[in-house]
Design a protein that fits this description.
This protein is mainly alpha-helical. The protein contains nine helices and no strands.
Length: 259
Amino acid sequence: MTRFFTPPLATSAAGGPPLTVSRSPGTDEAAPSPYGTDGPAASFSHTVGAAPDWPQEDEPEYRPDWRERFALGTDLALIGVVVTVAALPVLTLTAALAAGSTAVHHRYRQGRLPAFRPLLRQYGRSILPGIPFVLVAVLLLVDLMALSRGLVPGGTPVLLLTGGVACLLAGMATLALVAVGRDPGTPWRAALAWSWSRTSERLWSALAPALVGVLAFFLALSVPATIPLVIGFHLFAAHVISDRLSPSASIRGGHHPTA
């Protein structure tokens, strides 16, 4: 006796004609089923042809390895050494810090050191405008030393008050250096105006880099050989802190130096 076996999917539930799945030559798409979008053909196609709906995992966050961190530290140390040498005449201190701020910001944003000639031009044109800032800094330092040694009347209260004012002014000066570093074409007056507006809106914007500067100052005094390293890393810290507290979009449209 011959027995015939009919596959379960060959007929419909109502005993209709066999289900045939035909494919066009050269393609992988099945021909339309006589049952339309409902019925056994639809369930068969959804069961066989549908891809598994696996959840998509987020890509891991990129983190620089030790070689990139070492390269960054080396570049910051090099910038600090160059700034220290350029500031040896004392009156060129502001110009050297401005050029160093531009170099640090470029390294921080672009991942490489900038060209030397634009920095040299910025250094040259910033010498004369920066002399008044150097004189004010020297006067404040002399005043603090005189108060700490008792050469000026006032005692501890005046010393603390003067120290607080000097710290705030140092924070505002750091913000001005950040503004010049973000855009080397920013005039000093515009950089100071931006620094004042940031400080008046949010006092912590100036106090945070000022506290970092105080820490760097005492570290340099305790180990004078680390002065070049301290300068480079302090400028880097000032840019990182200012980018979080004072976004670059508020400085002349927020474009970055391309030197």
